[in-house]
Write a structure and sequence with these properties.
Elements (H helix, E strand, L loop, with lengths): L9 H10 L10 H13 L3 E4 L5 E5 L11 E6 L21 E4 L2 E4 L6 H15 L7 E6 L7 H5 L9 E4 L7 E6 L1 E10 L2 E14 L17 H11 L3 E7 L10 E6 L3 H18 L8 E13 L1 H13 L3 E5 L7 E12 L3 E10 L2 H17 L3 E4 L13 H14 L4 E5 L4 H9 L4 E3 L4 E2 L7 E3 H21 L1
Parallel strand pairs: 3-6, 3-7, 7-19, 8-18
Antiparallel strand pairs: 1-2, 2-6, 4-5, 5-21, 9-16, 9-17, 10-12, 10-13, 11-12, 14-15, 15-16, 20-21
Helix pairs in contact: 1-3, 5-6, 5-7, 9-11
Length: 476
């Protein structure tokens, strides 16, 4: 059986084979950081570590290239540690049991750690590489997977680079040039109830597909809370309870409401009409939408004022794609997700999750939510914010990256951006770098035990990275 360290390019795979043996679950990166520091010292390179554990290494330029701009190569050193239930594996000490399977490297029953282990190995290999280059800087960040702690806490004085190449993409042939920033809005509405024991209805909206509120918001999938708001508005309901959604980054798939109505049969008939309308509107994205109505007992309902504020606010709050990018065709620029509603005896809590690759557009979205909510008598708090990375098709780094790719592979790379948060956006904002791209090999099913990396794409990725570093040194 072929050993991982014998794969091509050997300079990269030998480091991947080493780091797969080192524990590096998110928030437990001490041993992998120590390994990187030791490798840098053995090579005689400048190395430091900041207060949160990020490792920064610098390599002097080859003679004749000293005055060229410094390139920062960036990756994250943590991995998602997941395993199948029937697998005995202790991530705190056991090496990843990786193996070669045709054109793929996989792991036996656990995550492989190619995300971002290949990026880490590429940085270590580039530290050793002896080609033509200007000054190089290597930024190894911690805890990307569970909070981007390293990126959020990097201090400007540690980073000297003039441009940044992130090595954490998962599609060879794609160059990423942007991502969304975001922030959550927590909306609190005080409520008043009145006793009204009697018969009522339990309404359930279900059968929706949901999905990630960033990368799948463009699929046009239904939001169960928005559908429920339409039901409540159209049947003249007095609400006892309404709730739905779970995580801020997921489009809600189910919602329930407990209500009283003046005319039960008329309400049920209207709900049937609405269910048919929903199925017609979302016949492609959510063909299994169902609105279930059951008889239920109700003890209390919202008073008239609270009832009106609840229903009208749920109707008024935005959801979905708000704007498309003018720089990258097909990319969502700005969106918001009505993510969660819960209610207790004194208040309703709503969570909105908004994203945009343009900070001013994110500001406007948050302000829209605040204005609608405050008109409904609510208190609004905005959570911690992560910055976006606005795509720039006129980037000098991008133009060189495109040219190098085309010369190597006789085709144009795909220029992409993602409607979700990336370390690149955070680092660029914190240290003031604007020339940035993100590249990587083909990695499938990251964050799961099915994770794999395509061996042939790693060779192409390395060849491309080497040539890109050389061309920047020659042409910048």
């Amino acid at each position: 059986m072929t050993e991982i360290k014998d794969l091509e390019p050997k300079i990269l795979w030998k480091y991947f084979d080493e780091i797969r043996k080192i524990p590096r679950c998110s928030k437990h990166e001490e041993k992998i950081a120590e390994y990187i520091v030791n490798v840098a010292k053995q090579m005689g390179l400048e190395v430091t570590q900041d207060k949160v554990g990020n490792v920064i290494v610098r390599k002097k330029a080859k003679p004749g290239y000293e005055n060229k701009p410094m390139i920062t190569l960036q990756c994250h050193i943590d991995m998602v540690c997941e395993k199948n239930k029937d697998v005995q594996h202790d991530f705190s000490k056991d090496p990843i049991n990786a193996y070669v399977d045709g054109d793929f490297v996989r792991a036996k029953g656990t995550t492989l750690g190619a995300d971002d282990g290949i990026g880490v190995a590429a940085c270590l290999a580039m530290m050793e590489w002896d080609g033509e280059h200007g000054p190089l800087e290597f930024l190894f960040t911690v805890d990307e997977e569970t909070g981007m702690t390293g990126a959020f806490n990097i201090e400007k004085e540690y980073i000297k680079g003039d441009m940044l190449i992130n090595l954490d993409s998962e599609e060879f042939g794609s160059i990423y040039i942007g991502c969304a920033g975001g922030a959550n809005s927590d909306i609190i509405m005080p409520l008043k109830f009145e006793d009204r024991a009697g018969k009522g209805l339990k309404i359930t909206v279900k059968g929706l597909r949901g999905g990630h509120s960033g990368v799948e918001i463009d699929k046009g999938r239904a939001n169960s809370l928005k559908l429920m708001a339409r039901v409540l508005y159209n049947i003249d309901a007095r609400v006892s309870k309404v709730e739905g959604g779970d995580k801020f980054n997921a489009i809600p798939r189910e919602a329930i409401a407990l209500v009283q109505v003046e005319d039960e049969e008329k309400a049920k008939e209207k709900i049937k009409e609405l269910e048919a309308a929903f199925r017609d509107e979302y016949k492609r994205s959510d063909p299994d939408i169902t609105v279930v109505v059951e008889n239920a007992d109700v003890n209390k309902v919202l008073d008239k004022e609270s009832n009106e504020r609840v229903i009208k606010l749920l109707m008024a709050l935005p959801h979905g794609v708000l704007a498309m990018s003018q720089e990258v065709e097909g990319l969502v620029e700005t969106s918001t997700n009505l993510a969660k509603v819960e209610m207790d005896e004194s208040r309703m809590h709503i969570v909105m999750s908004s994203r945009s690759s343009i900070n001013s557009a994110l500001d406007a979205t948050l302000q829209t939510i605040r204005c609608a909510s405050e008109l409904a008598g609510c208190e609004v708090k905005e959570g911690s914010r992560y910055p976006g990375w606005k795509p720039n098709r006129d980037s000098k780094l991008l133009k060189i990256a495109e040219e190098v790719f085309k010369n190597l592979y006789s085709k144009e790379p795909e220029i992409k951006a993602i409607h979700a948060g990336l370390e690149t956006g955070v680092i660029g904002e914190r240290v003031g770098i604007t020339e940035m791209i993100s590249i990587g090999p083909d990695i499938e099913h990251p964050h799961s035990p099915d994770e794999n990396v395509r061996i042939s794409s790693v060779q192409k990725f390395w060849d491309y990275l080497v040539k890109l570093i050389e061309e920047i040194a020659k042409k910048w």
